Amino acid sequence: MDLAVNLAPRHKLELRLANPIMTASGTFSNGIEIARHFDVDQLGAIVSKGTTLRPRRGNATPRTVETPAGMINAIGFQNIGVGALIQSIAPTWERWQVPCIVNIMGETVAEYGLLASRLDGIPGVAGLEVNISCPNVEVGGLEFGQDPRAAAEVVREVARSTSLPFLVKLTPSVSDIRPIAEAVAAAGAHALTVSNTIPALAIDVKRRRPYLPGGFGGLSGPAVKPIAMRNVFFASAATDIPVVASGGAMNGLDVVEFIMAGASAVQIGTASFLDPEAPWRCLRELRAWCENEGVQSLDEIRGVARRRD
Ligand SMILES: Cc1cc2nc3c(=O)[nH]c(=O)nc-3n(C[C@H](O)[C@H](O)[C@H](O)COP(=O)(O)O)c2cc1C
Predict the structure, then answer these.
(1) For ligand 1, what atom is nearest to the CA of residue 249?
(2) 197 alpha carbon – ligand 1 mean position (Å)
(3) Which protein residue's CA is at the shortest distance from atom 5 of ligand 1?
(4) pLDDT tens digits, residue range 7-58?
(5) Is 290 a catalytic site residue?
(6) How far apart are CA 22 and CA 245, in angstroms?
(7) Coil, helix or strand for 114?
(8) What is residue 85's DSSP assignment?
């Protein structure tokens, strides 16, 4: 059975994964702590915590609240900043076999470019994941990922600034993901991650206040899976670059479902909060399903649910 996938077939460096199971940004830190307990080299790829130019302390606590079939988080992008990541994390990644991808987030187009160029050529960094689900401060807070032109501008800037392959992570906060997926692919993205958390609110009735100090946060977990599924279906039909699914995958069958919708790889996020071994379990369950079904390669099932026959 061959579970290998290439997330950047058109890039000279390519982005080859031994299997389609990746970790989701922000749910695995930078992998260092978990690597003490589990073998990270068995996974397809690791995605870092969202990384900004300067370190960020993040929001006041509590930063997460459990909701039916999911959770809402408002971490506020706490991270050590790109300089410290290069100094103290990348050298460890360099010793691993598994490709490590840095998730980057800027507040302006120029910041995305600076982040991409700082990470260019750093040993241990196999690629970037560009999170465009964040406010564009230059135009008053509309997310880059909600406007095809702004999204394409970020992608062109990143492409100019790095020779690394990169994925672009789309927001589900749009009525139709296809125009954004098309604009991002046309601007030079090597793959898409579909999709990020969904803005949400939970209120503590006893306190008569939102649970989270800042009120709102991003919903993730099984509650968002059918939404992410539809977005993967549409984005993979609208573009010819690989699509990585993100949203509510909890087990191997969820992974199969995303691949049938058109995904090339699947990220495991919130599932890791319930079960730190979830990415490895999902991989075992995916293998067992393929074995039972006589599936030799994921090409046999990728996008089958999109067929009309
Ligand atoms: C606690 C937490 C922190 C997250 N931090 C980031 C982040 O820094 N950058 C990013 O692009 N996505 C971030 N995400 C979104 C996840 O990577 C993922 O896209 C989303 O949670 C949906 O997948 P899931 O339902 O499998 O968790 C975060 C999610 C959670 C739950």
Answers:
(1) 26
(2) 6
(3) 26
(4) 999 888 889 999 999 999 999 999 999 999 999 999 999 999 999 999 999 9
(5) no
(6) 10
(7) helix
(8) I
